[in-house]
Amino acid sequence: MNLHALRLLIKVAELKSVTKAADALSISQPAVTIQIRNLEKETGLKLIETVGRGINLTKEGEFLVERALTLFDMEKDIENKLFQLKNGELQELRIASTYLPANFLLPVWLAKFKMDFPSVNVNLYSGNSNQVLENLLRYNSDIAFVVKEEWNNPDIHLDHLMDIDFWFIVPHGHKYDGQEVSLRELMTEPFLLREDGSSTREILFSLCKVYRVPIPRIGLQYHGLNESIRSVVAGYGTMLAPQLAVREYWERGEIGRVIVNEIEVRRPVYICSRKNDKEFPLNLNRFIDYVKSSYEVQNPI
């Protein structure tokens, strides 16, 4: 397959215009058009279609662009690692993580790891579970830490690390503060929800589905866990939140906890890697071993 033509298709898809893509790449518009037509002939598929004055990718074009982006990200990753290896052992760790590990687990692990290996540079990217897994598969990170129950991605290897409890919380003094109620009763309260793709949102909706309870009314929607917790502290809303993030607020009496009848919410934390990565660089293996040993010391069997 013509890789140059693939790069042109990616630029056309990004700008939604053959003309703009040609200008951006400083080549002629007919040259771009010819390359894409040749790519369509090579694949036997229609990849773009005209919509008004712009263009859109077909379903087949979207698939090809998505895979091509991964291919070129892999190319960058290889070049980066080769450059580092020419100058000695790999000295950079690129880690992606969902909010909970990124804020309550990794800072401690990374601080202690850096004390032992000060020359290793660490880049930590955080996002929701969908964003983090995309970051990993696009070769923009080497490993990922994700809190997630359901998995359907055959390209990701999972290594179970630990389990985390989740609590239902309400403002201090709320009618359900310290009470035991049914899930159906609690779902009548206005909820603070995370964005689509958040593992906490997925957990809540999954509970509603399993127990055949309507999903709650959305009081507020946030793109961050801390903002949601602060709203509860301020006196508004009900939410499902990881115990690690809210326990100190509860112990200080700033929020209340609700016990839901016969329901305990616990979710696993996984170390995720790409299945086609047969082995890790030395420093990455060191960090993974360090994380596992640190957790085992803190939580002996």
TrEMBL record:
One Gene Ontology term of the molecular function aspect: DNA-binding transcription factor activity
Pfam families according to UniProt: HTH_1, LysR_substrate
Protein keywords: DNA-binding, Transcription, Transcription regulation
SUPFAM superfamilies recorded: Periplasmic binding protein-like II, Winged helix' DNA-binding domain
InterPro entries attached to this UniProt entry: LysR_HTH_N (IPR000847), LysR_subst-bd (IPR005119), WH-like_DNA-bd_sf (IPR036388), WH_DNA-bd_sf (IPR036390)
Domain HTH lysR-type residue range list: 1-58
Similarity comment: Belongs to the LysR transcriptional regulatory family.
The name this protein goes by in its record: LysR family transcriptional regulator
Organism lineage string: Bacteria, Bacillati, Bacillota, Bacilli, Bacillales
